[in-house]
Design a protein that fits this description.
Number of helices: 4
Radius of gyration: 23 Å
Protein name: Tol-Pal system protein TolB
Function: Part of the Tol-Pal system, which plays a role in outer membrane invagination during cell division and is important for maintaining outer membrane integrity.
Oligomer: single chain
Family: Belongs to the TolB family.
InterPro entries: 6-blade_b-propeller_TolB-like, Tol-Pal_TolB, TolB_N, WD40
Distance between the termini: 32 Å
Helix content: 10-25%
Subcellular location: Periplasm
Largest sheet: 7 strands, mixed
Structural class: mainly beta
Length: 443
């Protein structure tokens, strides 16, 4: 195991600051990821073994999704099948470590798929430390339906990721976003939901009215969003399973927008514009009672709770330009945390609690960035004509956002980048997309 640990440290140089972790006896390997990856860890995923007839295609597909999930992180590099010296045709057969070591595979993932008489599918897998010649932890098994094979594949990938890095994964998660179609000046928008990798797309609303800024509940079963279907921006809450919705705030003469759930899912924080002034309010989602949290002549919006629910980060132009502030979840005096050049907006508290992601506009360019919650250690991760609206992966390791291209034919699409600024890549969607919100891991 020490050999494997050493290899991991070399492979993940700079991404892995320390990795003692080798394990206490029979415990899982642990790696602390703190910076950007330079050399991804090479791994091999032979096609999973089909242990019952008719499972061959599923076994291959599941292995491919596992490999794609790990490859997509930028932390790992899959060794192609044509480089294999041997393969695995029996899940219980001893591993020929020398064959995998010869092609420099440092981790090996093997699996098998079967179906019982009741139609229940079983997927089991093992992870091997090739250079130490040992299994990394114990094998695991997931059960489900044939139709749910992609979720099981993502669960396998999450388990492998967690076993090697020591962090939870983010593959068995979903993204809700605004699907965009049509020319830029007549764009149609509707809410859509998909797996984190773009599969299993569903539309939650039609395109009869403009929708903005969907936000998942902490349990992933509800979505808040802003809609113009009443003629004014209003905050709605939508049940993901039934796609039924109701308006949360519908006071005459007001506009409500930019909602987010509290960490316990019982309250919503959002902005209301009334009499030309915009402030932040907190609403009990069951009783509908609301409390005003800010009271200033400036524009106060884009609130986001800390993971413990005790504080809220938001944007305000009270100092004369758009900046980030933090206040108690009960309101009161706020502390400014952004002091760099340019304007800051759309802050989102990391699920780890240590960072705030934001949109920054400076010298005609837009950036996605992160800073400590005290405003220190600001880092810009992207730069383009228009990047905005960050959302965190469930493990706080990756940020997804909207990128819009310039010009009359410009379009919006989703991108992701890891918190170090590496592994910038587009997210697959059907057509254009904006305003992503990443769900927690599915239960």
């Amino acid at each position: 195991m020490k050999t494997f640990l050493k290899s991991l440290l070399c492979a993940l140089a700079l991404f892995v600051s320390v990795a003692p972790l080798a394990q206490a006896q029979n415990g899982p390997l642990r790696i602390e990821i703190t910076d950007g990856v330079i050399e991804p860890l090479p791994f091999a995923v032979p096609n999973f073994v089909a242990e019952t007839s008719g499972m061959e295609e599923l076994a291959t597909n599941i292995a491919r999704v596992v490999a794609a999930d790990l490859n997509g992180t930028g932390l790992f590099r899959e060794i192609p099948e044509n480089a294999f010296i041997s393969t695995i045709t029996n899940f219980s057969s001893p591993v020929q470590y020398s064959d995998w070591k010869a092609i420099n595979a440092q981790a090996l993932i093997s699996g098998a798929v079967s179906m019982n008489n009741t139609g229940e599918m079983s997927v089991k897998f093992r992870v091997y430390d090739v250079f130490s010649g040992q299994e990394l932890g114990n094998g695991l098994r997931f059960r489900g339906t044939r139709e749910g094979w992609r979720r099981i594949a993502h669960k396998v990938a999450d388990a492998v990721y967690s076993r090697i890095t020591g962090e939870s994964g983010y593959f068995d998660s979903r993204v809700v976003y605004v699907s965009e179609t049509g020319p830029k000046n007549e764009r149609l928008k509707r809410l859509a939901i998909m797996d984190y990798d773009g599969a299993n797309l569903q539309f939650l609303t039609d395109s009869s009215s403009i929708v903005l800024a969907p936000r998942f509940s902490p349990s992933g079963d509800r979505v808040l969003y802003t809609s113009y279907e009443t003629g004014f921006p209003r905050v709605f809450v939508l049940d993901v399973g039934s796609a039924t919705r109701r308006v949360l705030e519908d006071q005459p003469g007001t506009m409500s927008f930019a909602p987010r759930f509290s960490p316990d899912g019982n309250s919503v924080v959002f902005s209301i514009t009334e009499g030309g002034n915009t402030d932040i309010y907190l609403m009990d989602i069951n009783s509908g009672s609301r409390k005003r949290l800010t009271n200033a002549p400036s524009i106060e919006t884009a609130p986001s709770f800390s993971p413990d629910g005790k504080r809220i980060v938001f944007e305000s132009d009270r100092s004369g330009s758009q900046q980030l502030y933090i206040m108690s979840a009960n309101g009161g005096q706020a502390q400014r945390i952004s002091f760099g050049q340019g304007r800051y907006g759309t802050p989102v508290w990391s699920p780890r609690g240590d960072l705030v992601a934001f949109t920054k506009q400076n010298k005609g360019r837009f950036h996605i960035g992160v800073m400590r919650v005290d405003g220190s250690e600001e880092r810009l991760l992207t730069a383009s004509f228009l990047d905005e609206g960050p959302t965190w992966s469930p493990n706080g390791r990756v940020i997804m956002f909207t990128r819009e291209t310039q010009g009359a034919n410009g379009s919006a699409s989703l991108y992701s980048v890891d918190v170090s600024g590496r592994n910038l890549k587009p997210v697959r969607t059907q057509g254009g997309g904006s305003d992503p919100s990443w769900s927690p891991l599915q239960q």
